């Protein structure tokens, strides 16, 4: 079963590193209720995203979208900058 082009996953996260050329590291935090204890738990995961114009800076809140593999670790691309860092 193939995914249609318009049904790619999007995530919102914060840029934690912009040291690489045309690449940013984004931390995505998701909150969910623990199935047994009922407590809200936070899990964080880092994603490498392609930033073709080197626009993103550390602290920016951005939206990333699933993409074809660009390199060994990059499978996401920056779609928009939601909020600039202060």
Structural class by SSE content: mainly beta
SSE sequence, one letter per element: EEEEE
What's the rounded overall pLDDT mean?
A: 94
Q: For the CA atoms, what is the radius of gyration?
A: 14 Å
Shape: globular
Helix run count: 0
| Share of residues in helices | under 10%
Distance between termini? 44 Å
What percentage of amino acids are in beta strands? Answer: over 45%
Fill in the keyword field for this structure.
86 residues; 5-stranded mixed beta barrel; 5 strands; mainly beta; 0% helix
Any overview of this molecule?
The protein has 86 residues and is mainly β. The protein has strands at residues 10-17, 23-33, 40-50, 61-66, 74-83. The protein has a 5-stranded mixed beta barrel with strand order 1-2-3-5-4. A hairpin with a 6-residue loop joins strand 2 and strand 3 (40-50).
Helix/strand layout:
Elements: E1 10-17, E2 23-33, E3 40-50, E4 61-66, E5 74-83
Parallel strand pairs: 3-5
Antiparallel strand pairs: 1-2, 1-4, 2-3, 4-5
Concise structural overview:
This protein is mainly beta and 86 residues long. Helices cover 0% and strands 53% of the residues.
